[in-house]
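Exercise 7. Given the encoded structure of a 111-residue chain, write a plausible sequence.
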């Protein structure tokens, strides 16, 4: 089922916007005009990722700078600050990824 969550024109290149699709909180990123959606909260300590940065496909958490590939939610590197127990299994920190469909300037999420 497709759920409309945003207008493409409302998310600038390199921009991140928080949206809700059903009961899921997501962040949408614009990578050179292509849109990607992952779960909104960092898998480390749940920071809101729309407050982070997007450089190319790399989404960086605003709190301890954990990095993800926004195309698929894959965790690329762990937190850099001294935040307790080091993360041994980075794969366990991946974000959920959602299919984005662009229709007539509307960003839709396939749920
Ligand atoms: S909350 Fe995102 S890296 Fe710590």
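Solution.
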């Amino acid at each position: 089922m497709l759920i409309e969550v945003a207008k493409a024109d409302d998310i600038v290149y390199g921009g991140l916007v928080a949206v809700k699709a059903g009961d899921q909180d997501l962040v949408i990123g614009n990578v050179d005009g292509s849109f990607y959606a992952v779960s909104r909260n960092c898998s480390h300590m749940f920071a809101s990722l729309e407050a982070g940065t997007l450089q190319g496909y790399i989404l960086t958490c605003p709190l301890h700078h954990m990095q993800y590939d926004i195309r698929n939610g894959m965790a690329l590197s762990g937190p850099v600050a001294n935040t307790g127990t080091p993360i041994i299994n980075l794969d366990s920190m991946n974000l959920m990824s959602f299919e984005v469909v662009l229709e007539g300037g509307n960003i839709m999420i396939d749920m």
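Remark. The chain has one domain: 2-110. Students should compare their own answers with the one above.
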